[in-house]
Amino acid sequence: MKPRLITFLLLSAIFQINLSAQSNYVDGYVVTLKGDTLNGEIYFANMAKNPDKIRFRKNEVEEPYLFNPGNIESFHAAGDYYVRAYVKSEITLSDDHLLTTNQDYQFKSDSAFLRVLVDGPKQLLRYENYVGNINYYISTDSGYQYLWHKTFLKEKGGAYIKVQNNRYIGQLAIYFSDCDAIKGQLPELKYDNKRLIKLFESYYSNCSNYSYVIPKTKSPWQWSFGALAGITKTSVSFRTGSTKIFSYIPIPSDNPYFTPFTKSEFIRTFDATGGIYANVYLPRSNKKWSIYNEALITSYTVYNTDIYTSNNYFKINNMLRYEIPVREFRVITMVGMSNGYAYQSILKRKNHPDAGIKTTRFEQGIILGTGIGYKRFALEARFTFSDGISGDPHLQSRVRRTYFLLSYRIFDQKK
C-alpha cells in the first residue's frame, strides 16, 4: 500500500475518533430528585450495559454535567428510559465454560440505572451488571424485586449437564395472580427480554384497565436503500507467485514465459461504474454502525504495447460502515470485502495472440474507504486491493482500484 494512501487513511481515522465523542450526544432529558425535568442532550454510546453514570448537557456549547443514581431520579435517551435504584444482582459467571456445580446465589448490591422494559402500574426492568449477567426486576410497593434465576451444572450419569433454577416463574405467578389468562405462558417462560415483555403485554391486554408503555430505542434494526454511480481508476500489475491474495510461491523472476507481464508498465484507465445498495443499521447504535451491501457493475481496460486486458465485472461488496453526524453532514468510514464475477474477460498479448494466459472469472479483494454525506447524498472515495484476472497458478495479478462515487438514498426506514 502506498505511503500516501496509508497517511490519508490514518488521518481520516484520527479525524473521526475526534468527532465521535461529540456526535454520540442525542436528544434526551433527566428528571431530578426534586421532580424537575432538564431537557438537553445525553451522551449515548450504545448503552448495551446499564450505565452507572451519564453525561448531560443543555446544548453543544455548554460543558456537560456528570450524573449518577445518587443525584437524578431517571433519564430518557434515544428512546430508552432508565430509573435509579439500589438493587442486588447475581454475579456468578454464567458463560458455559465457566459454569460450576455451585447452586448458591452470589449477590452484589449496586446503585444503578435500571432500564425500563415495560412501564405501567406493574413494571419490568433490566440490569446488565459489570460481569455481563442480565438481571430482571419487577416493581412492587416496597421497591424493585429481583427475579431469581441461576444456571449451574449438575452431575448425571457420569456427565455434567446444565440446570436452571427458575424461581422467577413462581414469583411471576404470584405477581400476576389476578390474571388467569397468562397462566399458560408461565411454565415455559424464558428468562429473556422477548418472553418477559410478551408476558407483561398479555397481562395488560387481558387483565388490566391501565395503560402501559414499552419504551423503544430509536435504533432497532433499520435499513435504507439507494443507488450510486461514479468512476474508477484502475492499475494492474503482475508478478511471479501464487494467485492467492495472501500467499506467494517463489518462482524465478526471469522466467521468460512471464517476463512480458512482470516487466511491463500498463496505462491506467478511468471507467464508469454504478449499482444499488442496501444499508442495514445495527440496533442500539444510533444509526452510526451498519452493514452496508451493494451490487455494482464495474469494468476496466489496461494495456501497453504488447499486453491487453479488458474485464467487466458484477460485484457484491459487503462492508462494515461507521457514520458520524457533524451538523448537517455525515463523516463516513468503511472496511469490507469485495467479490466479483467477470462476465466478460480478455487477457492477451497483442503481438503474440497465441501466447495466452489462463484467466479466472472470480475476483476477491479488500475495501477501504471514506466519505462525506449530506441529507440523501454521499460522496465517497474507496480503495480496493484484489487478486485480479490471472488464473495461472504461478502468475500473480494485482488490481488496485480507486473509486469516486456519488450515492443517493432512495428509501430510509424511519422506525
Question: What order do the helices and strands come in, and which of them pair?
Answer:
Layout: H1 3-23, E1 25-32, E2 37-43, E3 54-57, E4 65-67, E5 72-77, E6 80-90, E7 107-118, E8 124-128, E9 134-140, E10 143-146, E11 150-156, E12 159-165, H2 167-175, H3 193-207, E13 222-240, H4 259-262, E14 269-281, E15 289-303, E16 307-326, E17 329-349, E18 362-374, E19 377-386, E20 395-412
Antiparallel strand pairs: 1-2, 1-5, 2-3, 3-4, 5-6, 6-7, 7-8, 8-9, 9-10, 11-12, 13-14, 13-20, 14-15, 15-16, 16-17, 17-18, 18-19, 19-20
Please explain how this structure is put together.
Helix content is 12%, strand content 51%. With 415 residues, it is mostly beta strands. The chain has a domain of 191 residues: Beta Barrel (Porin). The strands form 3 sheets. The chain has a 10-stranded antiparallel β-sheet with strand order 4-3-2-1-5-6-7-8-9-10. The longest helix is centred in the first third of the chain and has 21 residues. About 4% of the residues have low confidence.
CATH fold title of the domain at 222-412? Porin
Distance between the termini: 41 Å
The SSE string, one letter per element, is: HEEEEEEEEEEEEHHEHEEEEEEE
Number of helices: 4
Shape: elongated
Secondary-structure content class: mainly beta
Largest sheet: 10 strands, antiparallel
Secondary-structure arrangement, i.e. CATH architecture of the domain at 222-412: Beta Barrel
Number of DSSP strand runs:
20
Integer average pLDDT: 85
Low-confidence parts: 14-21, 243-249
CATH class of the domain at 222-412: Mainly Beta
User: Can you give the helix content as a percent range?
Assistant: 10-25%
Instruction: Report the portion of residues in β strands.
Output: over 45%
Please state the CA-atom Rg, rounded to the nearest Å.
29 Å
Tell me the strand order in the biggest sheet.
Answer: 4-3-2-1-5-6-7-8-9-10
